[in-house]
UniProtKB/TrEMBL annotation:
Annotated Gene Ontology cellular component terms: membrane
Family annotation (InterPro entries): Marvel, MYADM-like
Subcellular location: Membrane
Family annotation (Pfam families): MARVEL (PF01284)
Membrane topology term: Multi-pass membrane protein
PROSITE patterns the record matches: MARVEL
Keyword Cell inner membrane carried by entry: no
Transmembrane segments: 20-40, 46-67, 87-107, 119-138, 150-173, 185-206, 218-239, 259-279
Family: Belongs to the MAL family.
Name of the protein: MYADM protein
Amino acid sequence: ARSMALVKVNLRAVTSWVGIARLFAIVLSCLAFSLVASTGEYKNTYGTWCMFTWCFCFAVTLVVLLLELLELYPKLPISWDDFTSAFSMLAALMIFTTSVVYPSTSIGSPCRSHCAEKAVATTASCLCFLAYALEVGLTRAKPGDISSFLSTIPGLLKVFEVYVACLIFSLLDNFGSVPGLQWCVAVYSICFIITLLIIIFTIGRCLAYIPCPLERMLVGYSALALVMYITATVLWPYYNFHLKKRPNPCNSDCPWNKQLGVTFLTIFNLIAYLVDLVYSTKMVFIRTP
């Protein structure tokens, strides 16, 4: 009887709106990778990435749900709210990317084989993204609440910035020995490492041990990262596209297309760091009553 008393079941983990969103995410991601696996057509680079995304999000969300259902998460030496907020944001970004990449690379025009399975898998992936987006919206911190940093707008943006940097790294091909392009790669790398460390230290509850005014330091870092990304936004397209025409033909593996993709992703991260700086400054220097 004593051992039975130690096992608690928290039904709110599956009956609350957040729990329901997680259940939908589990079912939909499982449906997506099961259908794609049944086709056997996922052995290329993009197909492998899509399968990894669905399986990874399915497994982690299932573990999160079980830990909350059995109330075991307080025993973990991490900030649970920060971890779940960061993961739901990451999962939403990964599933969104997969929902775009999979149909564009695996469903031809016209579709030649396993059309129904691929169409349903794409639909399930899109709905799975909506489930994770709903979870992000439901768990986002209310204005003035900073108890869980990664559930605030600056915290969620840091997950976005890290993910976009990963996409940039996947597109970097040959930037040669041009100092301007080497500086851009240094900007992407430095900002990625520092932002990732902020996320890891937040989840691991290590930020309290840093002997300096942390909130002001984060505002200063956001300002520095913004300035660095402004330089990359100018230098990357200048050195890659100045007096250079798009080759014809130019497919998905064409270096020109990859450089264009890096340009757009750099702009996305520039905007993210700008909004991050605005919200961080508001949180630190403009106190709400």
